[in-house]
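new request in #modeling-help
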Amino acid sequence: MMNEELDIQRSERIHAYVLGSVSTAERSAFEQELATDPTLRDEVAAERTLMEAIHQEPELRFRQLVQRVSQTQEQVGEIVPEETPVIPIGRRFDMRWMAAAAGVLVLLGVSLWFLSGQDADYRSLALAELQQPPSATRSAGEGTTVIDSLQQVASKRLQSGQWQELLSFTEMLLEREEFTDRYGDRTRLDRAWALMKLDRPNEARDELGQVNAADAAIQAERAYYLALAYLLEADAESAREALRDVQAPFPWDERIARLQEAME
Amino acid sequence: MATVPSDNEILEALRGSDLRAQERAVAALLDRIKPPLIHHVRLNSGTREQAIDLANEVVVEIWKKANDPAFQLNEGVQLSSFAHRVGINLWLKELRRTKRLVHDNGVEGGGYEPVDPQTPEDEMMEQEPDRNALAEQQIALSAFDRLGADCQQLFRMDADDRKPEEIMLAMGWADQNYVRLKRFRCRKTFNKFREEVSIISGVRIQPAR
């Protein structure tokens, strides 16, 4: 208790110093301590950074938004700049690009027109399934280690539908071996779900290809997601194949049965 | 089909509070400035990744400008042209910073001059963001986001330099000692989150006690 009171006093001194609400004498004494106490310097730096971050919050949030949008563009290849010629300043559109884009749109329209009603139904079926909660049975990361805590953050992003944030966050997590060892497969499943919600079934399938746990529930969930990814592309045959002979425990047995029935 | 937003629509969306509209404006702006900036940077000692960072930074600069009531694009100047010039000048600064540009001696980048050096785009660059400080602030904000509502509100009031008695009343706490105790505990939690975020983001910070 005594120790905590001392810590509180120290914390209050740091706070007062950072906010500049100390007398000249107090400041001078504190700065003498700072010169010899590296831990105190770190604590002051942390406090100062927090206060600055709060003051700079709108800009920092906007920077996050820009980063997110820019990353998404890079991931989906909206920008193809490697060999793109410099667009002269002041010339906003190149008519050749416009013409090419128009051509693609016409082709897309024609393709859509040729899609049969059934194909559209398969896609609707996947979209309807994607309205369900993603993974009701998985824990949100029990335990109290840093790794568990990171999984809890990822899980919150999944549950709150922050798909892009989930993808950026888990990309970093999957670079850490200790995280991947413990949560790798379930994280890849979560990423696949997020990718399907963003209508990127190809990438979702790639993600699912890296799930390799022997656990029956994970395998069933993987098969179910894989089927959804195929259905998003109206590929019912591959979806059926993905679900063939899957030994699914609850609740995946119900979800898979429902999906199989709907595809009949 | 979505239409291409005009310059004014982009600026309006950037200064507004509608996140969706902001995202669309940022995407439209990046669409316009990324390709020429990537080309420019690659021709001038940089990589594609650096060009993308540069384009992102340009968008932030435009956002700041959009929120400046005094800002107005000169007549006949398109936003993409303005942004491109900001980008070129920012890249020039970056080259100077990393000493990849040496003037007047024919070494790499020699003779490279900013576009229209007396324009307001230059003035915008006077306060170059400190990247390390920015990274640390981003980490701090991510850690802050994970705090409970009480801690967040307490820290916001701290940043606002509110007095302990004001905080006590605003939060409905019993006494000022509780404000001190709560601040101490919130800071401990914050420091723990900050370390975790730093680990996953790969940005080194000095752990606070």
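bot summary: Residues 71 and 168 of chain B are 41 Å apart (CA to CA).
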